[in-house]
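Record 1 of the preview.
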Amino acid sequence: MSSDPSSRYRRILLKLSGEALMGDQQFGIDPAVAARVAGDVAEIQALGVEVAIVIGGGNIFRGLAASARGMDRATGDYMGMLATVINALALSDALEQQGAITRVVSAIEMRAVAEPFIRRRAMRHLEKGRVVVFAAGTGNPYFTTDTAAALRAMEIKADAILKGTKVDGIYTADPMLHPDATKYPTISYLQVLERRLQVMDATAISLCMDNKLPIVVFNLRIPGNLRRVVTGEAIGTTVS
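->
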């Protein structure tokens, strides 16, 4: 797949939280929101960018919250991983309706709904222009989908992780709670770790730092923002 000279990246990994699919609902998946995200992905694919996606499961089940209420942490985490498979299937369906060809690739084997993760095969899908949706995190409890995103991005040799959120970058404090918080246009991995900024968890940030993989945090809720990031517009915050 030849990439458009106007795109800044050849291959990206898009990290979405499960909540990104929820819209204004309390839980679950809003098909209209899934369709909008799929439209954004189709738009950057048309520029020749190879796209892999890692999606969370927080809109359906969150292992950490369940363990706080007395459930075994590993069991809760496995349930959370299964929730990400449901989200991956929903997103894959929305993408196919936009005309994209997709593959859902799961870290937990479930042959009826997803392929097992085989690194070389996943990379081949990307080279052939398919959108690869990685589900079930790393397949291990105690690791978040942020860490899964960092790990998969390294494995497929992505140029960057694009983390779609509901805010337009990284701030000195939560802008929802502190209106006077200021946005960082760029920030280093170490500053994110030292200031305990809630970008991704520390394991994911450390992995990206060790492998010099940039992370761009941007507002996914604004239509066209994904294209703007990919074409090099200065939106969001870059961690490098």
